[in-house]
């Protein structure tokens, strides 16, 4: 007993031995920055622990220089936790009127508005009445309360009642013991002449009924694909915050179009307005104009109250649906990009009058462009997170409108009227909606665009070539002259060797023949085939350079496959062949075989092939020099067929 | 080339003349007589196994026969040698070797019971070889020292310890190539003077003088062959004024293997040529 009393005494002494001090001066809150503050605190392991009163005021200039923003906190901490009454205020004030002197200060009256939030906390948990007031000031005096919302927390720290009073709307409702919207929520849309009553019935967070009362008539809001009963499939319901996603789900599902006589608005627009106000009101209890109000004040990150207020049933996407959603986004991007590029194409100015393909492409692209906004809208719905909360099989044309393209259109080309098939896909069936069908439609459209683009690009390249043909022909002639000069030994005399000598006659004849062949082509053929001829002359030049390298490459392999051994009897260095069988196969069979091919096959197709084969043989011989090739050496023994030797040496021989 | 050959012949002649004069001085007053030449044949294998960049294992096995009982050269088994050593390569021109020999001496008269059939003769040996490179041939100087414990095959004879001092001068002259390389026939004139010392050596300091003109062939860096007919001249044990002479057929096989790991044997290759 005595020990217990002593322990109590010691612990209480320890508690009170923490000396609380008061700080007055500049202090920075993490999200807001510097402000003037007054607070009580003590230090614990060099950490500042708020304990006692806390006041913070920050004055900053808004973008317009005359408006000043003042953010203020008032409240109390107990060991870093929010306790008791707290207020947050954000004022936008503008100095008006004449300044007057008071003691040593210059004072002027202000006008502006204020967001004021008063709350209650018990160790960071919200309690009691929370209230948001938005009001205006004129000459430093509050004149008008523009907005008021109340949220009451019960002792169990859950939301209990909610009320909004706004000049356009009045909302009142309550929550169940889990903090979810429950029971009847009455919303009054204030009109100039007559108010409109909106009723939302919630059951455990799920909206059960939603209607407007007009002249004692109930006009129900129609939701498509939205599950409104929690009785079945309870496991697929999720408690979520009344946030942007919840609002998006409601706006997507709301298909009502009823026009109320007493209002200019349709009921889906009125419902949307009230949904937005509720979401905004909930949010403003913890976030206002980008400031996370309580996380900023409480220093440490805390979830001050359960933000989940409503329930939604989720219908998870199947893997095919996920793929379809991703594919649609890619397909739309592709289509838009191609349309944009085609639209920017300068060659089209003359092209559409010259080529039927281009004219046809232009007309079809214009057709797609007229539906582009609809395509974008459709794809954007599929990209929305809200879609997963709607039953896709129940959706129809009221959400996904069918996109129809004509099969045939009239086109005038070169003063001739013609009908052309668009080749565009038939629309998906909106009344038997499936995401996969929509994706299929988008993909077919994308493929059609890709096909049109490929055809158009070919023609545009033709046009480009036509304008640049003279330049390209200059290049062709230069290549031809260079190839002839190389083999005529007019240039690079030093590198001319026996291998060049072996092919020179054939190479020169080939180049001359090819050039004559080009010269005899029609203009259209020249445009389409000039690249082929340039590539051919390039191949001859490449062959020349390969032949220049052949002696050094052969020497290199010879050197690689020669080892110098010191003979301990004659005290001499002696050269010895390593991997003899492989080297013999290379030296006696493969190299002569390839050189013969090079000499024999002087044509556009075979020159690059023979160059590649020779390079691959050389690279492989270098590569296997340091590898264990016992197995290969056994296999190449007695093998004389070059093609089989290529295979045994794992060299890809192009035939 | 001709000049080099001329100088070589002159040098060889001087060396050939030198031992006769030396022998004559040793046996000053007595007249020197040379016994009728005996015959023999030697079959030698020389192995060199490369163990490291600088080390070789030298392994030699010699089979020797002698003329006997009316059969020249191949009459009886004379000796079997097992010579092993470790060779250190100081440079490509100078090497040193140290090791041991176990020689088996067979009876000079196999039918005679007074002789033991086989007598063992152990030796310790070390040698130093220096090579001189010329444009088209090579000259070698070999100094070998042997410490031998030997006895005759006579029953009851005692072992006696002697030292041998051997100097050998030999050349490699390629015949069908300018350099010594695989596929080359070569001529190798070879002269060796073997001197001895020991308690039992009385005036017969010159044990042997060997003239061995070899013809050889280099089959590969690892294998070569040589053949020669050697003439030797040496003081007899009993009477230093009496010289023994021999004609010996000589068949040699030289081989070498590199026992180092594969990668060490191959110089670095630039793969990204």
Protein chains sharing the most extensive interface: A-B, 22 and 35 residues
Strand content of chain B: over 45%
What value does the average pLDDT of chain B take?
88
* Quaternary structure type: heterodimer
Give the number of helices of chain A: 15
Question: What is the 3D form of chain A?
Answer: elongated
Structural class of chain A: alpha+beta
Global shape of chain B:
globular
* CATH class categorisation of chain B: Mainly Beta
Largest pleated sheet of chain B: 14 strands, mixed
Sheet with most strands of chain A: 15 strands, antiparallel
Query: Please, how many domains of chain B?
Result: 1
Number of helices of chain B: 2
Order of helices and strands of chain B: HEEEEEEEEEEEEEEH
Low-confidence stretches of chain B: 1-7, 16-25, 267-273
Tell me the helix content of chain B. 10-25%
Plain-language structure description:
The complex is a heterodimer of chains A (655) and B (273). Chain A has 655 residues and is of the alpha+beta class. Chain A has 4 domains: 127 residues; 157 residues, no CATH class; 146 residues, no CATH class; 161 residues, no CATH class. In chain A, 42% of the residues lie in helices and 29% in strands. Chain A is built from 15 helices and 25 strands. Chain A has a 15-stranded antiparallel sheet that branches. The N terminus of chain A is likely disordered. In chain B, a hairpin with a 2-residue loop joins strand 12 and strand 13. The radius of gyration of chain B is 21 Å and the shape is globular.
Topology readout:
The complex is a heterodimer of chains A (about 650) and B (about 270).
Chain A: H1 2-16, E1 21-29, E2 33-44, E3 47-61, E4 67-78, E5 81-95, E6 100-102, E7 105-107, E8 110-122, E9 125-126, E10 128-138, E11 141-153, E12 159-166, E13 169-175, E14 181-189, E15 196-203, E16 206-214, E17 217-220, E18 237-241, H2 244-253, H3 267-283, E19 287-288, E20 291-292, H4 293-297, E21 308-313, H5 319-344, H6 348-354, H7 356-370, H8 372-383, E22 408-413, E23 416-421, H9 435-487, H10 498-519, H11 523-560, E24 562-567, E25 572-577, H12 580-600, H13 606-624, H14 630-636, H15 642-648
Antiparallel strand pairs in A: 1-2, 2-3, 3-4, 4-5, 5-8, 6-7, 8-9, 8-10, 10-11, 11-12, 12-13, 13-14, 14-15, 15-16, 16-17, 18-21, 19-20, 22-23, 24-25
Helix pairs in contact in A: 2-3, 5-8, 5-9, 6-7, 7-9, 9-10, 9-11, 10-11, 10-12, 11-13, 12-13, 12-14
Chain B: H1 2-26, E1 33-34, E2 38-50, E3 55-68, E4 71-91, E5 94-106, E6 118-133, E7 138-150, E8 160-174, E9 184-188, E10 190-197, E11 206-211, E12 214-220, E13 223-235, E14 242-258, H2 262-265
Parallel strand pairs in B: 1-14, 2-14
Antiparallel strand pairs in B: 2-3, 3-4, 4-5, 5-6, 6-7, 7-8, 8-9, 8-10, 9-12, 10-11, 11-13, 12-13, 13-14
């Amino acid at each position: 007993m005595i020990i217990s009393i002593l322990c109590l005494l010691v612990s209480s002494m320890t508690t009170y031995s923490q000396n609380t001090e008061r700080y007055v001066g500049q202090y920075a809150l993490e999200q807001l920055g510097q402000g003037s503050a007054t607070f009580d605190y003590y230090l614990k392991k060099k950490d500042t622990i708020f304990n006692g009163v806390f006041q913070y005021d920050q004055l900053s200039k808004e973008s317009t220089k005359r408006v000043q923003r003042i953010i203020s906190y008032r409240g109390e901490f107990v060991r870093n936790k929010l306790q008791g009454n707290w207020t947050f205020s954000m004022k936008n004030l503008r100095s008006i009127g004449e300044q007057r002197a008071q003691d040593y200060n210059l004072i002027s009256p202000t006008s502006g508005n204020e967001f004021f939030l008063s709350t209650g906390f018990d160790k960071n948990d919200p309690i009691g009445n929370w209230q948001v007031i938005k009001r205006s000031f004129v000459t430093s005096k509050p004149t008008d309360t523009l907005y008021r919302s109340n949220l009451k927390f019960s002792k169990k720290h859950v939301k209990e009642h909610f009320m909004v009073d706004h000049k356009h709307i009045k909302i009142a409702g309550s929550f169940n013991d889990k903090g979810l919207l429950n029971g009847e929520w009455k919303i009054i849309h204030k009109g100039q002449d007559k108010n409109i009553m909106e009723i939302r019935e919630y059951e455990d967070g799920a909206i059960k009924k939603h209607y407007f009362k007009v002249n004692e008539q109930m006009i129900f809001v129609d939701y498509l694909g939205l599950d409104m009963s929690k009785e079945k499939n309870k496991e697929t319901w999720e408690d979520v915050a009344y946030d942007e996603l919840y609002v998006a789900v409601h706006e997507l599902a709301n298909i009502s179009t009823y026009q109320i006589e007493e209002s200019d608005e349709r009921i889906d627009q009125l419902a949307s307005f009230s949904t937005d106000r509720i979401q905004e009101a909930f949010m403003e209890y913890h976030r206002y104009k980008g400031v996370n109000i309580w996380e900023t004040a409480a220093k440490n990150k805390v979830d001050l109250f359960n933000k989940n207020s409503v329930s939604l049933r989720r219908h998870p996407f199947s893997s095919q649906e996920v793929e379809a959603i991703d594919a649609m986004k890619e397909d739309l991007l592709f289509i838009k990009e191609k349309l944009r590029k085609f639209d920017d194409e300068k060659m089209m100015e003359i092209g559409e009058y010259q080529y039927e393909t281009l004219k046809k492409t232009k007309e079809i692209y214009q057709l797609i462009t007229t539906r582009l906004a609809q395509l974008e809208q459709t794809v954007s719905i599929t990209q929305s997170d809200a879609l997963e909360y709607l039953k896709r099989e129940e959706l129809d044309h009221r959400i996904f409108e069918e996109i129809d393209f004509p099969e045939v259109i009239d086109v005038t080309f070169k003063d001739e009227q013609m009908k052309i098939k668009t080749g565009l896909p038939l629309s998906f069936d909106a009344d038997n909606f499936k995401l996969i069908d929509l994706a299929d439609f988008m993909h077919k459209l994308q493929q059609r665009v890709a096909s049109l683009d490929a055809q158009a690009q070919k023609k545009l390249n033709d046009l480009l070539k036509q304008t640049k043909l003279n330049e390209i022909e200059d290049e062709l002639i230069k290549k031809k002259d260079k190839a002839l000069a190389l083999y005529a030994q007019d240039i690079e005399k030093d590198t001319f060797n026996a291998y060049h000598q072996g092919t020179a006659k054939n190479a020169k004849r080939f180049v001359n023949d090819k050039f004559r062949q080009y010269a005899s082509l029609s203009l259209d053929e020249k445009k389409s085939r000039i690249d082929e001829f340039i590539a051919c002359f390039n191949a001859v030049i490449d062959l020349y350079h390969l032949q220049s390298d052949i002696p050094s490459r052969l020497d290199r392999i010879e050197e690689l496959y020669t080892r110098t051994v010191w003979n301990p009897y004659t005290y001499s260095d002696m050269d010895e062949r390593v991997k003899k069988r492989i080297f013999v196969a290379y030296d006696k069979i493969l190299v002569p075989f390839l050189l013969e091919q090079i000499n024999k096959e002087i044509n556009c197709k075979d020159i690059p092939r023979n160059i590649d084969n020779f390079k691959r043989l050389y690279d492989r011989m270098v590569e296997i020099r340091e590898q264990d090739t016992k197995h290969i050496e056994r296999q190449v023994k007695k093998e004389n067929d070059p093609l089989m030797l290529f295979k045994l040496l794992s060299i890809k021989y192009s035939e | 080339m001709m000049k080099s050959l001329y100088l070589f012949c002159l040098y060889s002649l001087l060396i050939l003349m030198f031992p006769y004069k030396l022998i004559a001085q040793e046996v000053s007053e007595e007249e020197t007589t040379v016994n009728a030449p005996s015959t023999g044949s030697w079959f030698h294998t020389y192995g060199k196994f490369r163990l490291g960049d600088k080390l070789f294992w030298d392994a030699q096995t010699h089979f020797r026969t002698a003329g006997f009982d009316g059969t020249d050269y191949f009459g009886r088994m004379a000796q079997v040698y097992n010579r092993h050593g470790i060779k250190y390569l100081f440079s490509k021109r100078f090497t040193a070797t140290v090791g041991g020999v176990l020689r088996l001496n067979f009876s000079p008269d196999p039918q005679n019971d007074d002789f033991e059939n086989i007598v063992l003769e152990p030796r310790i040996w070390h040698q130093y070889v220096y090579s001189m490179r010329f444009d088209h041939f090579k000259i070698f100087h070999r100094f070998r020292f042997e410490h031998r414990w030997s006895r005759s095959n006579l029953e009851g004879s005692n072992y006696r310890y002697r030292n041998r001092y051997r100097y050998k001068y030999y050349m490699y002259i390629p015949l069908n190539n300018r350099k010594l390389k695989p596929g080359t026939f070569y001529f190798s004139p070879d002269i060796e003077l073997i001197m001895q010392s020991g308690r039992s050596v009385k005036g017969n300091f010159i044990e042997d003088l060997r003239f061995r003109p070899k013809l050889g062939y280099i089959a590969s860096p690892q294998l070569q062959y040589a053949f020669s007919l050697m003439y030797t001249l040496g003081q007899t044990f009993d009477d230093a004024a009496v010289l023994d002479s021999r004609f010996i057929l000589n068949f040699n096989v030289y081989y070498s293997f590199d026992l180092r790991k594969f990668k060490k044997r191959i110089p670095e290759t630039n793969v990204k040529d």
